[in-house]
């Protein structure tokens, strides 16, 4: 007799399907709650620049390009115009103070000088004639007064005699009055002559004073014309290098025209152009370093030019001690310009990442070095070597500092 066998619930097939279902459910749960959903990108590690965050002294400075120039440059401008008849020194030669560089010719200046001299000579003659006339008038006055005094003495004697005789009725009243009138007439004539001569002398003195003033001014004018003629000979105002001379024989030069320059070779300065971003932080006395022939030389700013051209402004710097030997005019060299004192800070080397992130975030490597994760940071000051880290990174962190331009918005970089 056959035996009924009970059917089993967990068959092999059910167990397989149930296991697969549970595995699938577990996988879905993992993806939903535990998997890393961040956007990822595979990159080649050898193409990356990885820098380590460190702690040290942050030196705030910028590197600017300086050009060596003479400490003093004297511009040669034509004081008077004219055409060049001689050129005695070419550009590039040393000159001593007083050396003749050019000779000019100007016929109009010579004519003006001669006219001024002629006018001065005429005034000298007029002054001499006026003084001579004044002397003659004084002698004439003395002679006239002498004659009048003699006539007055005679008239007084006649008047006194007739006055005595009139008392005794010896002379007539008519004779008495006649001698009296004659005597008084001569006295009045003497007073009038003195007054007239006084006026003439005052007038002559005024003329002499005016002529002397005019002559003085004319002589000064003659001296000025003479100095102007002397300026037709262009001389070196100082000793130095005649670095340029921009005229040739026969060329015409206008008054005030620049004809060259002389460089004082007793010292040098460096002129540098700086980005206008730093204009509020640049001032006279600011220190700088100049590397030359393996040695460091201290410098300081002596002048800041306020004019901004094409986003840059210029400064002049001099050596605080003796200028290094061997530097030449026109030589270009980098200068380290200090903007502040050294301070302790967290430092991140400068890299191309900044242009892509603006310094707001970076990719930081995980400890295993297989992934780099996006992290927000805060940067402070910058110098040509380092950024100052204010927040988001710690000393020892490994940061990708090369360009992020190919990574898009990926949050995780997987290094291979």
Automatic annotation (TrEMBL):
Its main location: other. Keywords: Coiled coil, Membrane, Transmembrane, Transmembrane helix. InterPro entries: MdtA-like_C, UPF0194_transport. It comes from the Bacteria. It holds the Pfam family RND-MFP_C. The chain crosses the membrane at residues 15-34. It is found in: Cell envelope. Residues 176-228 form a coiled coil. Residues 349-403 form the Multidrug resistance protein MdtA-like C-terminal permuted SH3 domain. The keyword Transmembrane applies. PANTHER family: BLL5650 PROTEIN, EFFLUX SYSTEM COMPONENT YKNX-RELATED. This is Efflux RND transporter periplasmic adaptor subunit. It comes from Lacihabitans lacunae. The lineage of its organism: Bacteria, Pseudomonadati, Bacteroidota, Cytophagia, Cytophagales.
């Amino acid at each position: 007799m056959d035996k009924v066998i009970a059917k089993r619930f967990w068959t092999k097939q059910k167990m397989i399907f149930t296991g697969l279902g549970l595995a699938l459910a577990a996988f879905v749960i993992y993806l939903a709650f535990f998997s890393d959903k961040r956007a990822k990108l595979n990159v080649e590690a050898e193409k990356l620049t990885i820098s380590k965050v460190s702690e040290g002294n942050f030196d705030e400075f910028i590197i600017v390009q300086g050009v060596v120039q003479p400490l003093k440059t004297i511009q040669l401008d034509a004081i008077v115009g004219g055409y060049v008849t001689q050129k005695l020194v070419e550009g590039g030669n040393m000159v001593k103070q007083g050396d003749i560089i050019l000779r000019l010719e100007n016929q109009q200046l010579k004519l003006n000088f001669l006219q001024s001299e002629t006018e001065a000579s005429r005034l000298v003659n007029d002054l001499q004639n006026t003084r001579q006339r004044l002397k003659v008038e004084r002698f004439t006055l003395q002679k006239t007064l002498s004659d009048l005094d003699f006539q007055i003495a005679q008239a007084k004697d006649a008047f006194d005699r007739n006055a005595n005789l009139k008392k005794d009725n010896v002379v007539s009243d008519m004779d008495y009055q006649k001698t009296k009138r004659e005597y008084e007439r001569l006295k009045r004539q003497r007073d009038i002559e003195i007054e007239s001569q006084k006026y003439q002398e005052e007038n002559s003195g005024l003329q002499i004073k005016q002529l002397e003033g005019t002559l003085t001014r004319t002589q000064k004018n003659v001296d000025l014309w003479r100095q102007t003629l002397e300026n037709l000979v262009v001389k070196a105002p100082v000793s130095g290098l005649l670095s340029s001379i921009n005229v040739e024989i026969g060329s015409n030069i206008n008054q005030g025209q620049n004809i060259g320059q002389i460089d004082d070779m007793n010292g040098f300065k460096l002129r540098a152009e700086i980005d206008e971003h730093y204009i509020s932080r640049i001032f006279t006395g600011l220190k700088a370093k100049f590397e030359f022939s393996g040695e460091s030389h201290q410098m300081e700013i002596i002048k800041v030019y306020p004019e901004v051209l094409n986003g840059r402004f210029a400064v002049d710097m001099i050596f605080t001690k003796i200028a290094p030997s061997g530097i030449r005019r026109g030589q270009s060299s980098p200068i380290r310009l200090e903007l502040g004192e050294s301070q302790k800070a967290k430092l991140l080397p400068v890299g191309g990442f900044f242009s892509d992130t603006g310094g707001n975030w970076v990719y930081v490597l995980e400890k295993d070095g297989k992934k780099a994760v996006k992290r927000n940071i805060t940067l402070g000051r910058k110098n040509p070597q380092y950024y100052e880290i204010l927040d988001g990174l710690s000393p020892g962190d490994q940061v990708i500092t090369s360009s992020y331009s190919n990574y898009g918005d990926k949050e995780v970089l997987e290094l291979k």
